[in-house]
Amino acid sequence: MNAQPQNAARAVDEAIVSADSGPLHSSYDGLLFDLDGTLIRGASAVPGAPEALASLDLPVSFVTNNASKAPADVAQLLCSLGFSAATDQVMTSSQAAVAIAEESLAEGTKALVVGAPAFAELVREAGFEVVSNADEEPEVVFQGLSKELTWAELAEGALAIRAGARWIASNTDTTLPTERGLLPGNGAFVKAMEVTTGQQPEVAGKPGAEILRRAASAIGSKRPLVIGDRLDTDIAGACAAQMDSLLVLTGVSTEAEAHRADAGSRPTFVAPGLEALSLPLSTTEGDVHT
């Protein structure tokens, strides 16, 4: 990888913008940040990320596929790591999942939550009746990441889905970047449920476009830039939402994978880290550079 600090963000496609066009963020009216692998790794900040965000003066939304924490807890975690974040700036995949269900299911509908207590609380706050097992005949199963997930919980979810319950997964990320490395993500458990039930879930988070559209609307952004570390979720979601994207090489996806990405998961820009947001853009000869 040929580091070029003065041109840390490079357009993937030919001659998108000239080098004297100003810093990358100046072309947008809002920034939609992924969390795991982009801003944080587990309970630690990605080095330089708090400083990079502090230098920006655009509306920001924190858009995470991790459904294990309540929005207020996500904001609190970010603040504890040196970021400036408020609860109303957070958009989680669990919020998106509940919003999808609210559009078509009546208040009081029985719901089984295979996931964290924070997810169950969001479902309850939305007016659904949260039940604990398939024998209570839930009409919908919500599935999200929980680090305390048990076989018994997966079993109840599988039984409910096989009995005809609607299935909404917060996300399908198979891995979760942490300070110790990549650990199993919600998608790993979703795949177990797919094998068990023979069904496919509705997916609320990235790479779905709706979560990004909701996040952009919440901060009043008409031309947002999506920033993330995964081609298959962050960048594919941006493509689906027809938003520009920046892939940062601080998490899961690599520069080599960005080279090979198809149109549905191809980033607009690639850079080593978030410092690129404050640096001038440059053209390429049709290849990915950082």
What does this structure look like?
By secondary structure, the chain is of the alpha/beta class. The protein has helices at residues 49-54, 71-80, 93-102, 117-125, 151-162, 186-197, 210-218, 231-240, 255-260, and strands spanning 9-11, 30-33, 40-41, 44-45, 60-64, 90-92, 110-114, 129-131, 140-143, 166-169, 175-178, 181-184, 202-203, 224-228, 244-248, 269-271, 281-282. The strands form 4 sheets. It has an 8-stranded mixed beta sheet with strand order 6-5-2-14-15-16-1-17, with helices on both faces. Strands 8-7-9-10-13 form a 5-stranded parallel beta sheet, with helices on both faces. Helix 5 packs across helix 6. The model is unreliable at 1-7, 13-20 and 283-290 (pLDDT under 50).
Number of helices: 9
Bin the helical content: 25-40%
Unreliable parts: 1-7, 13-20, 283-290
Number of strands: 17
What spatial order of strands do you see in the largest sheet?
6-5-2-14-15-16-1-17
Structural class of the secondary structure composition?
Answer: alpha/beta
**Average predicted confidence as pLDDT:** 90
Form type? globular
What is the multimeric organization of the chains shown? single chain
The biggest sheet amounts to: 8 strands, mixed
The radius of gyration is 19 Å
Report strand %: 15-25%
Helix and strand element order = EEEEHEHEHEHEEHEEEHEHEHEHEE
Alpha-carbon distance between the two ends: 7 Å
Topology readout:
Blueprint: E1 9-11, E2 30-33, E3 40-41, E4 44-45, H1 49-54, E5 60-64, H2 71-80, E6 90-92, H3 93-102, E7 110-114, H4 117-125, E8 129-131, E9 140-143, H5 151-162, E10 166-169, E11 175-178, E12 181-184, H6 186-197, E13 202-203, H7 210-218, E14 224-228, H8 231-240, E15 244-248, H9 255-260, E16 269-271, E17 281-282
Parallel strand pairs: 1-17, 2-5, 2-14, 5-6, 7-8, 7-9, 9-10, 10-13, 14-15, 15-16
Antiparallel strand pairs: 1-16, 3-4, 11-12
Helix pairs in contact: 5-6
